[in-house]
Amino acid sequence: MDLDRLAYDAAPVGIVLSEDRVIRACNAEFAAMLGYGREALLGQSFRVLYGSQEEFERVRDIGLGPLQAAHVYSDERMMRRRDGSQVWCRFRAHALVPETPLARLVMTFAVISDSPPAALTPRERQVVGGLGRGLTSKEIARELGLSPRTVEDVRARLLKRFGVKNATELLGRLTYLAP
To answer: What keywords sit in the KW lines (predicted)?
Structure first.
């Protein structure tokens, strides 16, 4: 086995190559973190890894703008395992065809936790995901179609709930919480 293939197969994060949101290649770590054999995922739409069609489309829509602008995107998201349970992952993508970003993407998925941190609401997870990508409250609000004040309210509640002073401390606390 050549060293490139060995590195791909043994990487401690899930690695995926997709074309038009269909899985064309993935390493063993990606399949294992989601409870599948690698062969079972090849040729599948990413839709099987989300709880609903709406969530699948929403995730696409949130990341599409940054992929078109910078050809890279990252966030934190919940993925659905084969058994229906969820895993919270740090996600990164790089568009290989800049003019049509979803045509071919290389993605990585790193497990943060086997469950949402401290039972965050979907809105809280969205705000935390934006904070994790270094976005301001205004940028998060624009991305989610909310007012900046709404995002600030969510952020303030999270800071108070977790007893931290700023977004950096919040992200650190959430990343290392045990499920």
So the answer is: DNA-binding, Transcription, Transcription regulation
CATH number for the 119-176 domain, one of 3.30.420.240, 1.10.10.10, 3.40.50.2300, 3.40.50.720? 1.10.10.10
- What per-residue confidence (pLDDT) applies to 176? 45
Each residue's pLDDT tens digit, 147-163:
999 999 999 999 998 88
What CATH class is the domain 3-115? alpha beta
The three-point CA angle 158-159-165 to 5° equals 165
What residue spans define the domains of the chain?
Answer: 3-115, 119-176
- Dist. CA 144–CA 51, nearest whole Å: 19
Put residue 3 in one of left, alpha, beta given phi > 0 → left and psi -120 to 50 → alpha: alpha
Per-residue pLDDT tens over the stretch 89-105: 889 999 999 889 999 99
Rounded CA-CA distance 163/142 in Å is: 27
φ/ψ of residue 94, rounded to 5: -130, 120
